[in-house]
Specification:
Layout: E1 3-9, E2 24-25, E3 28-29, H1 30-40, E4 46-50, E5 63-66, H2 74-87, E6 92-97, H3 105-113, E7 119-123, E8 126-134, H4 138-142, H5 151-154, E9 158-161, H6 172-182
Parallel strand pairs: 1-4, 1-6, 4-5, 7-9
Antiparallel strand pairs: 2-3, 6-8, 7-8
């Protein structure tokens, strides 16, 4: 089965005030880290969905998807990434946000093992990304609109626990917490 990775990195980062995909935790940017982890998990191809005029990593193997409709919100990035995956004959996709530093290779492999049904990550009493979607869910993903993402599509999904999955980078405080937790950089 061909499972593609769709890494969402086109958000406006309004609360943070700067593009979060370019923030560093250790030697890697958040986007570089997520692309690397997706590759190490065996996902292929790996797509990075970014807004126009976004700087992108060099020396990392991925396929760039420019989301011309990024101002609409997360759904437009999901649509762009899934459409790119469909064009490569992917049988499934794992959708990831670039700003979740707790995602591991092992977690993505567990999600990818779930061949036939939608599976989501669980953390902080809810389900979310990273999430696995088989081809039968592509039509629903392509029908998403607005900034809600795929929340409704994972509500009834099988859940796989992701330790510290609730940590995402939306503020300087979040970034400092992630750096402290992962002990790779001093706080700002």
């Amino acid at each position: 089965m061909k499972v593609a990775a769709v890494v969402l990195a086109a958000g406006a980062s309004k609360r943070l005030g700067e593009p979060k995909q370019n923030l560093r935790i250790g030697a890697e940017t958040l986007l570089e880290r997520m692309l690397r982890i997706a590759h190490e998990a065996g996902l292929a191809p790996v797509f990075a969905v970014v807004a126009p005029a976004t700087s992108v990593p060099q020396g990392v193997d991925f396929r760039l998807v420019i989301n011309q409709e990024a101002s609409e919100g997360m759904a437009s990035s999901i649509r762009a990434g899934v459409a790119a995956a469909i064009a490569t004959d992917a049988n499934a996709v794992i959708i990831l946000a670039c700003d979740q530093p707790s995602v591991t290779v092992e977690h993505l492999r567990k999600l990818a093992e779930n061949r036939g049904e939608v599976a989501a990550s669980s953390y902080a009493g809810r389900k979310g990304v990273p999430a696995f979607f088989p081809a039968r869910a592509f039509k629903d993903l392509l029908g998403l609109r607005g900034d809600m993402g795929a929340r409704d599509l994972v509500r009834e999904a099988r859940a796989i626990s992701l330790k510290d999955g609730e940590i995402d980078i939306d503020t300087v405080e979040d970034l400092n917490r992630a750096r402290k937790l992962y002990a790779v950089d001093p706080p700002l």
